[in-house]
Amino acid sequence: MAEKSYWKAIRRVRVSLVTNNRVSKGYRAGMRRCFASYGLAFATFLTVVPSGRTSEGDFYLGFPLSNYTPDNAPISSVFDHSMNTQYSKNGTVIAYTGESGDQHSITGCDCYNKSDGLRFVVNGNYTGAVSCGSAYYLCYDGHPGVDYAVVNNTPVYSASDGVVYFPSTFPGVSNAQQYHTVEIDHQNGYRTYYLHLSSRVVSEGQNIIQGQVIGYSGDYGSPGAYHLHFEVQKNGVPVDPYGWEGIGADPYTRTANVNLWNPPLSIVNIAFAPFTANQGDLLIFYYMINNPTPYPVQNVRLGAQIRTSSPQGPWMDDPENDAVVTVTPGTGGTYCGGTTCWYFRNFKTQQAITTGQYDVRFVIVDNTTEQWFDSVESPYHLTVIPTGARKTADLNGDGYVNMVDAAIMMHYWGDTSKPPADINQDGYVNVQDVSIMMSNWYNP
Ligand SMILES: [Zn+2]
Predict the structure, then answer these.
(1) How many Cβ atoms sit within 10 Å of the Cβ of residue 372?
(2) What is the predicted pLDDT for the residue at 254?
(3) What is the pTM of this model?
(4) Domain residue limits, the chain
(5) CA of 76 to the centre of ligand 1 (A)
(6) Which CATH superfamily is domain 61-261 in?
(7) Domain 3-55+265-389 has what CATH class?
(8) Is it the case that residue 106 has pLDDT exceeding 90?
């Protein structure tokens, strides 16, 4: 496939990405049509691989309240990381942020202030429970869920796909019916609970999907204190969907708390056909990372390995090519569209290899999960530029690769007349040349 057609396809993908916040079925169908129009088989070009940004793999929660996110919803009671069992009291409340309240100073209120006399921050929208009335008090001791202070009849959504139950009891609560409880069994060990609903609009045994309205918030079982008690249990043990952000180890030891709000970072897989390389050749690797999370930055470690493909040799580490990549949500930057960004990286083969057919693969490590991308399917995302077969990125020959060279390059952008800015001499001035230029910045 001609290089130019390929980049046309890429541009169309980027347009597609702008309108898609998540890799949905519709998105994939659009991608498939797009690539088919260029004679590319979508399946071999691109697959979506959840990298497992938490130890829970690709399980994550949608937020259960309309018009809110985990970051801006008003929290009136936190999950207490100091509790031994749900609703047991030990005189301390610790939020997922590590903020701690240990001075119980208001009679009739199960809330705790802190020695510095300052307000609690939590998610920045912490209100404190109605009974305490302010964010100077952390509430409340042994609380196994998160309370969101929202007005009556706010739509409540299922946090993930599952089956609906109206339990009379659930672990830690013996009188669930008194709170108009909805339980959703996500059938992977996780269950979510929604309490105090003014009404429920689903029925027991019903299969529902993430984001489906299950009822409306209220004060059922807590007269006058309108809020949604949202609780997540894993194998019958409460967990904090915010995870643990405090300094040091999580004091809650019953099970691991992981942030379940963030959709998993997914790598839109780029794979490579065997290629010919020599030691020192420049490999340009470009890949796309889908980062739908509203959370700002994630670090991903890239590691490289190389092997002969014929005869097939063992994978050899190429550790000097390891890198930490900062992945930001797509915000309309140069190579970002919607929530997905393209990343470019140059690698130089470090192994003492001889000319021949090679495979390369990259490991993408995101927190706890490794995902190798092998060079087995598509050549389109790896370019090999042999040593000496490219022009210097110092286009004006002044000894530096700088803005002057960039200006020259941009002047020739897309030109097919093989101008000096076509650094890799493939007939086009394009992002591959930019990638080479950036790798030589100030040092041709
Ligand atoms: Zn509660």
Answers:
(1) 12
(2) 93
(3) 0.56
(4) 3-55+265-389, 61-261, 390-444
(5) 9
(6) Glucose Permease (Domain IIA) (2.70.70.10)
(7) mainly beta
(8) no
